[in-house]
Amino acid sequence: MSSSAKTMGVLTVGTLVVVTAYTVALGSNGWLWFGWVVLGLATLGMLASKPT
Questions:
Q1: ∠ at Cα 34 (29, 40), nearest 5°?
Q2: Domain boundaries in the chain?
Q3: What is the pTM of this model?
């Protein structure tokens, strides 16, 4: 796995933790979850398109 893919994965997981904490503390925000899903899909796309 490349360095940029690892960074993207860590960013995605970190964002999930932040969005979950925000939801627990202040209530759900659909835009935050939508943004996290887009980030997750971008991460998956990056991992799927890595050179072998």
A1: 130
A2: 3-48
A3: 0.81
